Amino acid sequence: MSLFEHPDFDQHEQVSFFHDPKTGLKALIAVHNTHLGPSLGGCRMWPYASSEEALTDVLRLSKGMTYKAAVAGLPQGGGKAVIIGNPRADKTQELMYAMGRSVDTFKGQYIIAEDSGISVQDLQYMASESHHVAGTSAKFAYDGTPADGNPAPSTAYGVFMGIQAAVKHATGQSLEGKTVAIQGVGHVGLRLARHLKNAGANLIVADIFNEGLEVAKNELGATVIDPQQIHAAKADVFAPCAMGGAINPKSLPEIRAAIVAGAANNQLSSPQMGEALFARDILYVPDYVINAGGIIDIYHQRNESSAHAMRMQIEQIGQTISEILNRARDQNCPTEQVADQIAEEKFRPQQS
Ligand code: NAD
């Protein structure tokens, strides 16, 4: 297994492998860049088929966190952790303690948070072994309502800001009367649907489970369609809010919306999909820019900030997106390339 030669190595500052024979912990922690501040990123527990697969995942994810934090204007770097194992079968309290001790070896240069396979309870176990654990409790939500620790309300509000900015950029108009097709009405998608409805938009929704669909239909008057068809819905905006890879060689030619803007991570199945959207004149709002509300939430909860400061920074997502879209138009290039440039200008130390 190569590390420095790995295609996703990309100048990582530190990559550590942890093995605790007593608990069976096998984990990797990658710190991509700490130029702007200590690295922050979630921990994923997944039954990776090989350590190569785990390494590729942790390298890609930690790099993504650097870009996300930089564009969001947070004094944070990017890092990520993966635990090799099945969260349903292999997770124990002792394993989480061992993970907490592993995190502590970074002495604050890596702050761990939640990702798939890891719960708030797991983080609380880790927090008994290290101070460098985020997302164990939440004090406030961006709108002043009580918070339950789930950053989805902040993520949804940021995505709403981003969609508003993109529609304004493309049409000069507000969301009133526009149609948004939402793929996945889960924690983020359903909250996004409420914001859009309040702004006067029409909703088309799809999900593979009924729960969110019922609410969207009955409370918000959304039209429910087949999940296989949501990307091709006749809408002004397609908002992927389910899993990654919504924009792929099969879905791309069928997209009818002029704008793609949603919460899902890794929406482009490959970098070529960004070029292909650009070639089709579809305005793509880079995923890691529009879905930064969650990390902004975690940052403010951890740094004894206020709901007001958090809300201001989430609303800034809309302005950042306007800047990216304007710059991409002026440079006649794909939007995600501009977002990457902006991030790199911030976190790569000036070459002397
Ligand atoms: P979630 O699991 O609550 O919701 C996802 C929804 O998508 C579920 O209802 C699921 O049934 C549905 N779904 C899955 N596959 C589908 C398909 N093929 N077609 C239609 N629907 C499908 O997750 P979430 O917290 O709402 O996150 C949604 C996305 O946003 C994820 O990609 C996540 O990584 C990303 N994201 C979330 C946050 C956050 O704060 N929760 C922050 C940043 C990014």
From TrEMBL:
It holds the Pfam family ELFV_dehydrog. Keywords: NAD, Oxidoreductase. It comes from the Bacteria. Residues 149-352 form the Glutamate/phenylalanine/leucine/valine/L-tryptophan dehydrogenase C-terminal domain. The keyword Zinc does not apply. InterPro entries: Aminoacid_DH-like_N_sf, Glu/Leu/Phe/Val/Trp_DH, Glu/Leu/Phe/Val/Trp_DH_C, Glu/Leu/Phe/Val/Trp_DH_dimer, Glu/Leu/Phe/Val_DH_AS, Glu/Phe/Leu/Val/Trp_DH_bac/arc, NAD(P)-bd_dom_sf. Catalyzes the reversible oxidative deamination of glutamate to alpha-ketoglutarate and ammonia. Belongs to the Glu/Leu/Phe/Val dehydrogenases family. This is Glu/Leu/Phe/Val dehydrogenase dimerization domain-containing protein. It comes from Glaciecola siphonariae. The lineage of its organism: Bacteria, Pseudomonadati, Pseudomonadota, Gammaproteobacteria, Alteromonadales.
